[in-house]
């Protein structure tokens, strides 16, 4: 049967990008989409309705991408009716909705509908989030190459996702006994690094048939079947992990730090720097002028990201600890991040008074700009991968309080492998928080600063014209074109 596409006989490269519907992955995927658009390749960006609405409300993404005639948004229903993006505890609700509602529609689009070989401009390469294991099967059915995009950290992807079947077979999961400091030795490359407590949060389950573990096992089996894997890191940072991962996934494209590579490729050296936002929350930019009033490296930045939540008790312990350290602080307190809600009547009056003098609290902030600001001396973070690699890029040491998924692994690598911060996992005590802040800001400041600066320099080198990430992006673009040229007309 002949193709029904326009133009010459040759099919034009056309990439479909399909992220999971959460702030971090969508943010990364939009940056990847723009980098691919710059090469002249057509890109269709598929969002589920749940995330697309807030994205349009709070960003200029439509006008920004209007400069690319080779870009378009498509949406697919997901059956979710939340007005704003859900927190981490709603992760499986969202993924189940995608599986039930979006997946069959997406399959039809790819196999026989608007994105299929029967359409005027067929998709020639799919780049789904690696979490969408069904996309690999649909790619096989539609005869379309698939390059998975993984937005969790490579250290977690390798140790807890791709090796999850290994951990289960070795009897490391579920845990036997209560010693969380026991080393996990069945994962190649991390035998002397990861303790039980450093594995992804879902590994602590006593039941290996939970929906999350079943989802990750599916991903572990589908990712190696794809034609490639894109990760948001740079070769030098994750060399140990990437070397091991290539045994399962030979074709890996490390193109991070993605936010910095995006900025470097988008903004010519002679042109003024432009600010881009893909945030699904409204950013409060007044915090930048507040930072301007502070001396270099004096402010602690506190944020638990776009999905994590905390109890009021945890909030107060961290708040007291940061305040008692004596440093000024900028705190991002995302709406909906405090379990059970929050108001000032729950806070001791002296803490509120101290915060008026020393602190700035906002609902959401332009994080990349905050971390790049000279006043920031440390980042108290949930250790999400976007936050971690943004902090590494700017040479900002971290105090890690991980919440879920890859964050437990990331915080261990921050302290033990990259030596750029302190891991506070499994504790929430004001004295420990105060000590960790003082250690990073004062006691061990020079040690952390030197290590952070070394990694920042390597990160900057990786996105230079001949740097590893720039070269990997160029290879990705070339491979998309060659995959397209080898597609056989049906």
TrEMBL record:
<protein>
    <recommendedName>
        <fullName>Glycosyltransferase</fullName>
        <ecNumber>2.4.1.-</ecNumber>
    </recommendedName>
</protein>
<dbReference type="GO" id="GO:0080044">
    <property type="term" value="F:quercetin 7-O-glucosyltransferase activity"/>
</dbReference>
<dbReference type="Pfam" id="PF00201">
    <property type="entry name" value="UDPGT"/>
</dbReference>
<keyword id="KW-0808">Transferase</keyword>
<dbReference type="GO" id="GO:0080043">
    <property type="term" value="F:quercetin 3-O-glucosyltransferase activity"/>
</dbReference>
<dbReference type="InterPro" id="IPR035595">
    <property type="entry name" value="UDP_glycos_trans_CS"/>
</dbReference>
<dbReference type="InterPro" id="IPR002213">
    <property type="entry name" value="UDP_glucos_trans"/>
</dbReference>
<comment type="similarity">
    <text>Belongs to the UDP-glycosyltransferase family.</text>
</comment>
<keyword id="KW-0328">Glycosyltransferase</keyword>
